């Protein structure tokens, strides 16, 4: 390193001058004092001036110094001061020379006073807080801002100036960003749009907003390639040092961050920021913002095919996955679907309860008009993409492709069972929302939990059941205090979210009149469940109380299903409860289920809702009185 030898030569010239002066004055301690008192009035010898010129020439000729000076806009004094600091960092023995010049027997750290002595600075001059060395965190004082305060140079900069090829590995915060060969650009139109907007803008910050794993970083790398620029990826927390490294590598920095406000940006050049949200209105002349859209089914399938020779699983087409999740699923091989299910549902388990799907259409006993409404709902879910995209009806609902249904009716009329049958027929997993985990007393927390629920429902093959929906989707009230205000905010959020919801959800309630009218307008289907008529009750009794088990063992003895269906007005849930109660009683006594046991169980069940079952003596008819 010629520049380092030049700094040694400058120090040697200064040492020789000091020795010469001391010798002229007798070489005693008094000579040193006399030399100090003589000040700088004496003319600087030609040897020292020549050594300074040689150092300047060496710094100008060194490619690392040229890169550093141009990238960070260093002036001459900055370069002189940094040269001394870097030389002492690279060769710590030079600190003994500095101690010698200070007439001490111990090594001395470089200070602005020593730099002034070597470089001939004007009295009192030293780098300030506005220096490029300080603003780029190249060097900083170890204490107060005095001429005798030692300074420390960043080890990464010293390694760069020393020509160490691995100088960027000192902190591990910057790495080259490249897109593997064969990976197509998923958003070429957006890339070209941003590139066109940046034409003629040397100073600009680009915020690309999207959720983690959505391909923000990949698109920004492809954007840099389109601009003919190399790029580097900055680790979170790399700060000014990361931007400085990017400048030294003549690369565009790509910063990953949750919020763009948290990112230090290089307003003197181009900075690409991949974030989840960005500031609006701040630095509007220098900051541009784009939203990264979700990838389509075709894009997900092409991304899979570009990485794997295997056919993509159905989850790639059915679930709204991010590019990162598609790539991760490829590495999971045959377990891709299981892997994606576990990954997507990891954040939802706290607010959702997975339900079993044991029922089929044969188990569901409902009136004809209800069954027809449910079949129409299945058709809507299955064909929504064909109708919206194939027949181009999305123009009527551009903001949403979701299906939301309301199941309303008295308790026990089959709303939950119908939801289970739907999920099984559609091949969807069914999750019921745990209201205790969703609703929070803290402002904003309920909306945050609901946002997570809706997001997960949109991304994967999941049917979401909001049981007791009136607790969440109730009517807005007149604002009389802060509680009313924030309750209305929650309802307003739900209304907005339903407008953009693209998944499948069922709202179940037995108090339809309590729902806000604005919710009803946003629903795809409303199915009104009613208590079963005698014909439906007959089917329910026969299914609940068969004469024999599947193995042929007798279960009932003399049970009159038709009489029970005709004379006792019960819901399907009540019939199940009565049948179970009679079964346990019969099994406990060692007998079979009889008509009398069923009637006793019916009395107990009707008593729960304040109804009485009267059986007049000698009369085979029953009377139910409330």
| Count of individual beta strands | 18
Shape category: elongated
Distance between the termini: 102 Å
β-sheet strand percentage = 5-15%
Characterization of this structure:
The protein is built from 26 helices and 18 strands. With 626 residues, it is α/β, with parallel strands linked by helices. It has five domains: 2-166, no CATH class; 174-291, Rossmann fold (3-Layer(aba) Sandwich); 297-346, no CATH class; 353-528, Rossmann fold (3-Layer(aba) Sandwich), CATH 3.40.50.300; 534-625, Helicase, Ruva Protein, domain 3. The strands form five sheets. Strands 3-5-6-7-4-8 form a six-stranded mixed sheet, with helices on both faces. The model has no long low-confidence stretch (mean pLDDT 85).
Helix-strand blueprint:
Layout: H1 2-24, H2 29-38, H3 46-61, H4 63-72, H5 76-90, H6 94-101, H7 112-119, H8 132-135, E1 139-141, E2 151-153, H9 155-161, E3 174-176, H10 188-197, E4 204-209, H11 216-226, E5 230-234, H12 239-248, E6 251-256, E7 270-275, E8 287-291, H13 297-307, H14 314-318, H15 323-332, H16 336-345, E9 352-355, H17 368-390, E10 403-408, H18 415-426, E11 429-433, H19 435-438, H20 445-459, E12 462-466, H21 482-500, E13 504-509, H22 517-522, E14 525-528, H23 534-544, E15 556-557, H24 561-567, H25 572-589, E16 593-594, H26 595-608, E17 612-614, E18 623-625
Could you give a quick summary of the protein structure above?
The chain is of the alpha/beta class and 626 residues long.
Attribute tags:
626 residues, alpha/beta, 47% helix, 6-stranded mixed sheet
């Amino acid at each position: 390193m010629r520049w380092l030898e030049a700094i040694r030569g400058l120090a040697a010239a200064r040492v020789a001058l000091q020795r010469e002066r001391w010798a002229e004055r007798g070489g005693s301690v008094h000579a040193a004092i006399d030399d100090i008192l003589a000040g700088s009035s004496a003319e600087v010898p030609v040897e020292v001036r020549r050594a300074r010129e040689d150092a300047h020439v060496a710094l100008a000729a060194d490619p690392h110094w040229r890169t550093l000076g141009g990238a960070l806009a260093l002036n001459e004094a900055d370069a002189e001061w940094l040269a001394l600091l870097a030389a002492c960092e690279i060769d710590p023995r030079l600190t003994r020379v500095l101690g010698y010049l200070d007439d001490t027997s111990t090594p001395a750290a470089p200070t602005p006073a020593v730099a002034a002595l070597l470089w001939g600075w004007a009295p009192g001059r030293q780098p300030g807080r506005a220096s490029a060395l300080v603003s780029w965190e190249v060097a900083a004082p170890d204490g107060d801002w005095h001429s005798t305060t030692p300074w420390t140079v960043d080890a990464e900069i010293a390694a760069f100036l020393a020509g160490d090829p691995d100088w960027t590995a000192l902190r591990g915060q910057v790495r080259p960003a490249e897109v593997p060969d064969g990976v197509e650009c998923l958003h070429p139109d957006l890339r070209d749009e941003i590139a066109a907007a940046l034409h003629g803008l040397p100073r600009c910050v680009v915020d690309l907003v999207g959720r983690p794993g959505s391909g923000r970083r990949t698109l920004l790398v492809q954007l840099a390639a389109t601009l003919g620029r190399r790029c580097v990826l900055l680790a979170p927390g790399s700060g000014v040092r990361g931007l400085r490294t990017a400048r030294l590598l003549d690369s565009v920095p790509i910063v990953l961050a949750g919020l763009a406000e948290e990112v230090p940006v290089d307003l003197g050049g181009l900075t690409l920021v991949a974030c989840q949200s960005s500031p609006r209105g701040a630095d509007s002349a220098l900051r541009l913002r784009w939203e990264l859209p979700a990838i389509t089914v075709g894009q997900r399938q092409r991304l899979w095919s570009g990485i794997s020779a295997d056919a993509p699983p159905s989850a790639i087409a059915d679930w709204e996955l991010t590019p990162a999740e598609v790539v991760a699923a490829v590495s999971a091989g045959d377990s891709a679907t299981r892997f994606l299910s576990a990954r997507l549902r990891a954040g939802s388990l706290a607010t959702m309860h997975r339900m079993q799907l044991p029922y089929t259409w044969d188990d569901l006993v409902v009136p004809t008009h209800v069954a027809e409404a449910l079949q129409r709902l299945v058709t809507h879910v299955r064909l929504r993409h064909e109708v919206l995209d194939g027949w181009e009806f999305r123009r009527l609902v551009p903001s949403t492709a979701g299906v939301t249904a309301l199941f309303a009716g008295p308790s026990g009329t089959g709303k939950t069972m119908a939801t289970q049958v739907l999920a099984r027929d559609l091949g969807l997993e069914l999750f019921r929302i745990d209201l205790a985990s969703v609703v929070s007393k803290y402002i904003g927390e309920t909306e945050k939990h609901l946002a997570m629920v809706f997001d997960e429902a949109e991304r994967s093959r999941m049917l979401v059941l909001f049981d007791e929906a009136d607790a969440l989707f109730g009517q807005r009230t007149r604002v009389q205090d802060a509680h009313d205000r924030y309750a209305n905010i929650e309802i307003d959020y739900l209304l907005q979210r339903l407008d953009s919801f693209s998944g499948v959800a069922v709202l179940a309630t037995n108090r339809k009149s309590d729902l806000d009218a604005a919710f009803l307008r946003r629903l795809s289907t409303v199915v009104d469940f009613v208590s079963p008529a005698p014909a439906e009750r007959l089917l329910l009794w026969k299914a609940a109380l068969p004469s024999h088990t599947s193995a042929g063992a007798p279960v009932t003895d003399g049970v009159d299903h038709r009489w029970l269906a005709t004379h006792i007005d019960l819901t399907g849930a009540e019939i199940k409860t009565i049948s179970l109660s009679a079964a346990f009683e019969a099994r406990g006594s060692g007998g079979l289920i009889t008509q009398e046991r069923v009637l006793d169980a019916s009395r107990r069940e009707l008593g729960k809702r304040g109804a009485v079952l009267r059986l007049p003596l000698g009369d085979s008819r029953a009377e139910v009185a409330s």
